[in-house]
Amino acid sequence: MEKRSEGRGEIIIDPTLPIVDAHFHLFDLPEARYMFDDYLEDVQAGHNIVASVYIETAGFLRPDGPEVLRPLGEIEFANGVGAVAASGRYGKTLVNAAIVGHADLRHGNAVAELFDRGLQLAPDRLRGFRQVALDHPSDEPYKFMLAPPPKGLLSNAAFRDGFRHLAERKLTFDATVFHTQLADLIDLVDAFPDTTIILDHLGMPMQLGADGERAERFKHWRKEMERLSERPNTRCKVGGLGMPFSGFGFEQKQEQVGYRELADAWAPYVETAIKAFGTERCMMESNFPPDGYSAGYVPVWNAMKYITRDFTANEKADLFHRTAMHTYRISVPGL
């Protein structure tokens, strides 16, 4: 993530606009480290980040005990970081104000105990769960994944048995899929109309190896996004375009990437999604540190602000903090 810290000299667009970073990660792996102090460096670099939503990485798992319950370790970790941030000692940002934990829903009905014990451990922050469901017929995207998810997850019977336990606990589900899987996601959404399902990373438009097919793939993505947006129990996270899957190639550039270059490339996707879902169902995300492969934290947020520069103040409030606050039940003083 060599580009993660780049762009901190950029002038901050609309510096007072409150932002709830709706999607970020913390992890400590042999391949990469991004922990509380690293995130603080980013959020304190100029943008008005008032809170953030921690999204699981299936990290910090308990080393023993029933496999289905091992993700409790990550919930404990994330909740501890949230408590440290809430003390105010490390700045104003409510880091981990909401937590989305990991669950392997293929355990079926057994995940009910995980949900209940997670809520006991972090009643003020645990708001939902995620299980990455990325699945693609070609091998190309898997070279960017440390641990490829199981195939056919969304239609797996045991997965759906576990999924049905979310709604009764008012827990959300973050859906991480490629745009080629949106039809399968729509089927899941229709099967569980009482569960709030949040689409991560704009549905991850898959453009690796597209060559001359970029326009056709964009049309397919747009059509499926419009179909998904017709379901009222869905929300959309706007971001994630800094990962290699979108095919912009910023991660390969040696020179620093600024917000205007990002905005020019990302605008068609951002504008299409917001038009489909409406600002009241869209929320902005940094997706850091993965998006840090393409550009720094400051340029990423500047790009989103620049793309939406002509939106009304009310629409910007929806996009940059209000939708995330409502969806994840986050309270920020003064907002």
Automatic annotation (TrEMBL):
Gene3D superfamilies, per database record: Metal-dependent hydrolases
Residue intervals of the Amidohydrolase-related domain: 20-330
Family classification: Belongs to the metallo-dependent hydrolases superfamily.
SUPFAM superfamilies according to UniProt: Metallo-dependent hydrolases
Source organism: Granulicella cerasi
Pfam families found in the cross-reference section: Amidohydro_2
Name the record gives this protein: Amidohydrolase family protein
